[in-house]
Description:
The protein is an alpha/beta fold. The chain folds into 3 domains: 2-146 and 271-335, FAD/NAD(P)-binding domain; 150-268, 3-Layer(bba) Sandwich (FAD/NAD(P)-binding domain); 348-465, 2-Layer Sandwich (Enolase-like, domain 1), CATH 3.30.390. The protein contains 13 helices and 22 strands. The protein has helices at 15-25, 42-46, 48-66, 82-105, 162-165, 182-193, 213-224, 319-335, 364-371, 388-392, 421-433, 438-442, 453-465, and strands at 2-11, 31-35, 112-114, 117-119, 124-127, 131-140, 144-146, 159-160, 174-178, 197-201, 228-230, 235-241, 244-250, 256-261, 263-266, 270-272, 306-308, 348-351, 356-361, 377-383, 399-405, 411-418. Helix 1 packs parallel to helix 8. The model has no long low-confidence stretch (mean pLDDT 96). Nicotinamide-adenine-dinucleotide binds at residues 149, 178-184, 186, 201-204, 206, 209, 267-270, 317-318, 349-352.
Amino acid sequence: MKQSQVDVVIIGSGTAGLAAYRGAKAHGKSVKMIEAGPYGTTCARVGCMPSKLLIAAADSAHQLARAPGFGVHIDGEIRIDGKAVMDRLKRERDRFVGFVLESVDSIPAEDRIEGRARFVDAHILEIDGHSRLEAESIIIATGSRPAYPSEWDELGDRLLVNDDVFDWDDLPESVAVFGPGVIGLELGQALHRLGVKVWMFGMGGQLGPLTDPRVMDYASRTLQQEFFLDADAKVTRMERQGDGVEIDFRNTDGGTEHIRVDYVIAATGRRPNVDNLGLDQLAILLDDRGVPEADAYTMQTSLPHVFVAGDASNQLPLLHEAADQGRIAGYNAGRFPDIRAGLRRSKLSVVFSDPQIAMVGAGYRELEKRYGSCDCFTTGEVSFEDQGRSRVMLRNQGLLRVYGEQGTGLFLGAEMMGPDAEHLAHLLAWAHQQRMTVAQMLDMPFYHPVIEEGIRTALRDLNDRLHLGPKIVDRCMECGVGD
Ligand SMILES: Cc1cc2nc3c(=O)[nH]c(=O)nc-3n(C[C@H](O)[C@H](O)[C@H](O)COP(=O)(O)OP(=O)(O)OC[C@H]3O[C@@H](n4cnc5c(N)ncnc54)[C@H](O)[C@@H]3O)c2cc1C
Ligand SMILES: NC(=O)c1ccc[n+]([C@@H]2O[C@H](COP(=O)([O-])OP(=O)(O)OC[C@H]3O[C@@H](n4cnc5c(N)ncnc54)[C@H](O)[C@@H]3O)[C@@H](O)[C@H]2O)c1
């Protein structure tokens, strides 16, 4: 067994691991990064990038399909070439992965170890039984993996997770997507728009990351106009039959329906990769999912020299969070024991459905928990159905709800489904991080006619409900038509 000593060990070379490596190196420490799988990161290989490439193809098909609404007609059939769609996806995905591989290659070979790491004790890691590394500080940046009920394995190769979808050479005819969460909504809607017959089944009524019941209800109804979606489905049978899967379920009218699909896609959530690390060997505090508890500002666990970052921390499994957490963990492991609090930004998440869904700052459920029943926060809203620019572009579907604190007028957060929600959410997140009040946000410039004018309407409504501003004047003409 090869034995060696090092200042910092990072387990995992994903987005968090790579950021941690740079952070620790900045302190001049000896650092080793261990990787059990292929290099290239989840985001580039099987996450953010290939999913957005699939969505881009679906958007393009959808633009063509709605052109007649403007009086623009395509005389002839819109044909989707599944092989070409998947070919572009894989080519572009490989390009993105290539950029990451170049970055990994720039790390000296002696700093990289290939193999699966496991704790032997609080300072020693064993890698695939071939080497042991003793480290002063350790960063767990092992990411997450899809989680689904184990009995679904009986479906064999007809059961897929997101990784498998991005390996297709062609599009299938039909799929059942289980889990209308972020991954399920993005993949399911994109496949539907690319001509795949899609059924989507959820549990308990949850849709995407939303917590505001009004936005969740709006989003459900909007998506149901496009494909079968039951966020609280009753599936009574699911069995593999030949090259497909047969499913019986209660439809929304209460009757039993029978379908046969080519594949079942499990998008029922992800599980942090911390269960096979030998954490039981350590006196480390774990939460009820077995994830090490960690300070959100330092990423330090209850074992002072052990840090956790990225999806493994289960704090907010998003790319920019993985990068931030990795950087913080890396700096702190590098300067251990003299650690520092790092920057944690306002919460921001976007689902690339159409209309997009987004969350900013504190969500509705979080605010209800934080403020209880003291009526200390209130809500303003705007519907995009009559919003000027959205109607111009035939994209007038959506609901934005903004939250503010009574008394101070502080902007607390927002949940939305709407056109260009990715951009609206960024504006709101910047305001949130600047700790702006609703009045200060209303002092900012708004052009005309733009979708952002919807934000102004929602903020005016909120200001009125906070008793800090006048009522909204109907069809406020000084703001431009369709504010
Ligand atoms: C389909 C999909 C779409 C997504 N889209 C978006 C999006 O649009 N925007 C967004 O912000 N986020 C998105 N995400 C989330 C984002 O991809 C993740 O939050 C991010 O990639 C997590 O990075 P990470 O470094 O924590 O994990 P990873 O990149 O997964 O890295 C972890 C690494 O650790 C290695 N590892 C695990 N265990 C061990 C071990 N014992 N020893 C050694 N190595 C080990 C793994 O092989 C892996 O390489 C998406 C995710 C998915 C699945
Ligand atoms: N655009 C983005 O930023 C983006 C895109 C994809 C993924 N992600 C990240 O990846 C994480 C994981 O995404 P995800 O969609 O796998 O998880 P999720 O937690 O968002 O959604 C899982 C969904 O599955 C449902 N579910 C659970 N068990 C079920 C069952 N047996 N049958 C039917 N439904 C069931 C849940 O109710 C929930 O709606 C997200 O939280 C997000 O942080 C981000």
